Amino acid sequence: MSSSSSLLSQTEALLETEGHRITATRRGVLKAIAAADSPLTIEEISDRVPDIGRATVFRTVKLLQELGVICRVTLENGGIRYVLSTSSHHHHLICNECGSVTEFSSPQLDQAIHEEAEAAGFELSNHTVELYGKCKHC
Ligand SMILES: [Zn+2]
Ligand SMILES: [Zn+2]
Ligand SMILES: [Zn+2]
Questions:
Q1: pLDDT tens digits for 5-42?
Q2: What pLDDT does residue 4 have?
Q3: Cα-atom radius of gyration of the chain, to the nearest Å?
Q4: S-S: 132 plus which of 26, 37, 76, 136, CB 3.0-4.6 Å?
Q5: How far are the Cα atoms of 39, 65, 77 from residue 80, in angstroms, in the given order?
Q6: Which residues contact 106 (CB under 8 A, 6 or more apart)?
């Protein structure tokens, strides 16, 4: 995933388009995530914005996640990390070696998931798909 500043401005533009103010707190948190080489834990995000209180960082991360501009990623070992999101609904390929997270989309997979839920009489609210393994660089 690119951590360039263009991705950051793209994310900020998206927030503004959807009518959300870019507060200094939101920018600080987004910047910390965008500048990182790999996905960060919430503690690591908090450490990188020392001037923002931890509770505020937690709230901001949750909000940005709800807005779809960052992703909450569950690692195979159960750890939770955050990365910028570069597309709308997608799934993740997570490398157990280097920790990189790559997005992929699959309309066929999404359709199968919806059909399974429907067949089970299950009212689907959301789904995530995380694939674990070793990326092509590792
Ligand atoms: Zn994602
Ligand atoms: Zn890797
Ligand atoms: Zn999906």
A1: 777 888 888 788 878 888 889 999 999 999 998 999 99
A2: 57
A3: 16
A4: 76
A5: 9, 13, 9
A6: 91
As a whole number of Å, the end-to-end CA separation of the chain is 15
Q: Residue 1: is its pLDDT beyond 50?
A: no
Q: Does domain 5-133 have CATH number 1.10.10.10?
A: yes
Q: Please give the distance, rounded to the nearest whole angstrom, from the Cα atom of residue 34 to the centre of ligand 1.
A: 13
Percent of residues in the chain assigned helix, strand, coil, to nearest 5: 40, 15, 40
Please tell me the distance from the alpha carbon of residue 46 to that of residue 52, in angstroms, as a whole number.
8
Rounded distance from Cα 127 to ligand 3 centre (Å)? 6
Prediction pTM value: 0.86
Q: How far is the CA of 83 from the centre of ligand 1 (A)?
A: 7
Cα-to-centroid distance, 107 and ligand 3 (Å): 7
CA–centroid distance, 61 to ligand 1, in Å, is 14
Q: Rounded to 5 degrees, what angle do the CA atoms 120, 121, 122 make? A: 85
Q: Is the dihedral of CA 26, 32, 33, 35 positive or negative?
A: positive
User: CB-based contacts of 62: which residues, under 8 Å, 6+ apart?
Assistant: none
Percent of the residues in the chain that have a pLDDT greater than 70, as a whole number: 97
